[in-house]
Amino acid sequence: MWVCHVGDRQCHHGGRRAHQADRHRPDCAGRLALSSSSVTITGRGLTLDEVIQVARQKAQVVLHPDAIKTMRRSRAVVERAVERGDNVYGLTTGVSALKRARVDPGALARFNRDLIIQHRIAQGPPAAADTVRATLVRLLNHLASGYPGVRPELAAHVVQALNEDRLPVVRTLGSVGQSDLAPMADLAHGVLGDFALAAGEGLSLLNNNAFSIGSAALAMHDLGRLHQSMLSVGALSLEGFHANPSILHPSLESARPLPGLKRAVGQIRRLLEGSFLWSAPPRNLQDPLTFRTLPQVIGALDDALVYARDQLDRELNAAQGNPIVVVDEDRIISVGNFDIAPLAGALDLLRIALAPVLTASAERAIKLLESPWSGLPTGLLPGDGTPDAGLNELGIAAASLAAEARLLAQPVSFELPSTSLAEGIEDRMTQAPLATRRLNQMMDLSARILAIELTVAGQAVEHRNLQPLGRGTAKLLAQLRQRIAFMREPGQFPDNLEPVVDLVRMPG
Fold this sequence. Notes:
The chain is mainly alpha-helical. The protein has helices spanning 15-19, 48-56, 65-84, 108-118, 129-144, 152-163, 181-192, 201-206, 210-241, 252-255, 259-271, 289-292, 294-315, 341-369, 371-374, 394-407, 432-464, 471-481, 498-505, and strands at residues 2-6, 9-13, 38-41, 60-63, 123-126, 171-173, 324-326, 331-333. The chain folds into two domains: 2-208, Orthogonal Bundle (Fumarase C, Chain B, domain 1); 217-322 and 338-412 and 446-505, Fumarase/aspartase (Central domain) (Fumarase C, Chain A, domain 2, Up-down Bundle), CATH 1.20.200. It has a two-stranded antiparallel sheet. The chain has a two-stranded parallel sheet with strand order 3-4. The protein has a two-stranded antiparallel sheet with strand order 5-6. α9 (210-241) runs antiparallel to α13 and α9 packs across α18 (471-481). It starts with a strand and ends with a helix. 50% of the residues are buried.
């Protein structure tokens, strides 16, 4: 049983079947009995935090009354265009190279349904549930903006599917990023059920970038978490190496006023508050570059993430369909808003900025493991002259993972596989879904590389046995030891680092 609240009235529905007769009622607006957490969809104010709430915490969604009014005004423009017989792409005409053909007014419903079926050409594995939910909430915000010109009833139907967690299977491969046609066709087909589409609504469900943007939102949120781990693991490595802390001198902020560098220096200093590094004489005048440039490299990723987040925040609330309704002019115009080059380029930038962070992480682990660099026994196993390799072989794994990650950093937003699609009309693409997919693959490798560095740094810190550690690094070491023990003997090799990988992904 769920309840639609309409002013001071309540409409009671006994599940999906009982709601069939009421689903086209505009005043229902797709509202459900809400949990303690809910997100209001306005068509213009969606945030990354709200996407995460809906996608991963299963927060309920509610259409704002103003959004319903906006959709009604926009829909009235669409219906007048149909009545006049205006030549409007995807509304009264075919799509792509078939835009020359007119749609029979009596066949509009079938045309819209067939349009979705004909675009179900996606391939590959299904998207995760949180990706589908993120896509749905981005789609819903797009519909609520009024620019697509759909009925509020369609938006309410999407709300109902999302709130009841009825998620379709959405295959992940087959989109070139000029609208996510293939995955959106899977999503629309699964969500609609027997819902009857009106003129133009089939194209509105397909011709948007909700899949790319929803996926990118999750990826950027996860990268933000990894960024915190990069700082804390790097700080512990400084202690494990007994590095020179001059690299964190406050004068860096004025000497090179880069926002990311400033934040990185400040955060690492806080992690190392109270550490022996500040009072003990440094081992080296200058350490290897992967230690010495720790704040610069991670700071550059921070700056890239800030830029990418700005692009994402704009795209979460931008109209990306084609055509769009211009209510004030009572017309519908063709546009190219589906080209999300700014976001695709930002995703490429993130991978480029991430690659050196991972290379440096792997190199720090290797140098901590090697006696000529660290001054500790090679492999970091206690005792002198042992033939056992200790943790030394982890350096090979780190190098391998970093090499694979670097290959994923290659930009994709300039790729153009073909100029012959749709008789040469569709001769431009952003590859935004691929850009996000590669970022996710890089982040999976990132967590594993950082887990290796953390394991090695923790071993080096305890082997060196200099106290005290920083407040932040001491906490991190304690969390590490809750998952794997200090290696005192050869037989204690930690052959399963998955608990450490989980720690890196979800820093405490």
